[in-house]
């Protein structure tokens, strides 16, 4: 009897688990073929630089990325001089000779400029919704870059009968379908220096790549280490097998 109860409880838990998983899944999220997928994955430097441009020119008016410094951009192919010039476009608080507050040009070691001074101001400017910091968002959401790409492409006409609250936009990918972020991208919103056509699809791929790098800048090192470990284990297996054969021959007296 008790084992029956246990079994029933386990089945119930499984059933509930499946129900919860279904509720969280929401819309279908397309799995894209990212250059950084797989054991040999690497970041596409051109896509990273385009993604930074999209973040800087579009997303940064609402979203901070406070764990990044300008000098981190050297990792994605910007030169030291370019990073210095990028940082110098922003002002940071400082003190003048008399000790009075002033501002100076940001340095490469400064963190990315935040659009709002605090959470209250950020919510006030966004109808009560808080634009999350994007430094780690690619790791903080199930689906990571696939989710971000789908979310940015998930804006559609509100279907009849859907009660969309004031100030929200209809998005098929966002849980609950009513998001406090107005559709941020439209075709040709940025002009890419490399001539790539700036469609919503292209910009959302590029910015998702950039956000993936921001959340896991050491991804390439990790994958390279993984490949080395697998290679080492492979060699070890071969040597172990050869030694085994030698020992067996000796034992058998050949
Ligand atoms: C006009 C302000 C604004 C702009 C521009 C903007 N966002 Fe947002 N974003 C928001 C707000 C507000 C939220 C919170 C939405 C909510 O909780 O309903 C949000 C939420 C998000 C989320 C989290 C969604 C989730 O699952 O919780 C991601 C990811 C995101 N934005 C990415 C971007 C990217 C990438 C860009 C640039 C292409 C961008 N946003 C541009 C205001 C903005």
From TrEMBL:
GO CC entries: membrane
PROSITE patterns, alphabetized: CYTC
Tree of life domain: Bacteria
Keyword RNA-binding applies: no
Location within or outside the cell: Membrane
Binding locations of heme c: 59, 62-63, 181
Keyword Heme: yes
Cofactor(s) listed in the protein's UniProt record: heme c
Domain Cytochrome c as annotated: residue spans: 46-197
Main location as per UniProt: membrane
Transmembrane domains' residue ranges: 225-244
Alphabetically ordered keywords of this record: Heme, Iron, Membrane, Metal-binding, Signal, Transmembrane, Transmembrane helix
UniProt remark on cofactor binding: Binds 1 heme c group covalently per subunit.
Molecular function terms, GO-annotated: electron transfer activity; heme binding; metal ion binding
Signal peptide segment: 1-23
PANTHER family named among the record's database cross-references: CYTOCHROME C1 (PTHR10266), CYTOCHROME C1, HEME PROTEIN, MITOCHONDRIAL (PTHR10266:SF3)
Protein name per the record: Cytochrome c1
């Amino acid at each position: 009897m008790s084992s029956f109860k246990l079994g029933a409880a386990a089945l119930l838990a499984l059933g509930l688990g499946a129900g919860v998983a279904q509720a969280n899944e929401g819309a279908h999220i397309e799995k894209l073929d990212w250059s950084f997928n797989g054991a040999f994955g690497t970041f596409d430097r051109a896509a990273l630089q385009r993604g930074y441009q999209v973040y800087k020119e579009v997303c940064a008016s609402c979203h901070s990325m406070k764990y990044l410094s300008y000098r981190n951009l050297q990792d994605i192919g910007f030169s030291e001089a370019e990073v210095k010039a990028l940082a110098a476009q922003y002002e940071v608080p400082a003190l003048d000779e008399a000790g009075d507050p002033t501002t100076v040009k940001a340095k490469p070691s400064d963190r990315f400029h935040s659009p709002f001074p605090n959470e209250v101001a950020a919510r006030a400017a966004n109808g009560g919704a808080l634009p999350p910091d994007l430094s780690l968002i690619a790791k903080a959401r199930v689906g990571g870059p696939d989710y971000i790409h789908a979310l940015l492409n998930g804006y559609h006409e509100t279907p009849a009968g859907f009660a969309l609250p004031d100030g929200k936009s209809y998005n098929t990918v966002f849980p609950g379908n009513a998001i406090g972020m107005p559709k941020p991208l439209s075709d040709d919103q940025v002009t890419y220096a490399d001539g790539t056509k700036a469609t919503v699809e292209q910009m959302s791929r590029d910015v998702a790549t950039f956000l993936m790098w921001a959340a896991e800048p050491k991804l390439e090192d990790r994958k390279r280490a993984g490949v080395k470990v697998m290679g080492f284990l492979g060699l070890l297996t071969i040597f172990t097998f050869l030694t085994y054969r030698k020992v067996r021959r000796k034992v058998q007296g050949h």
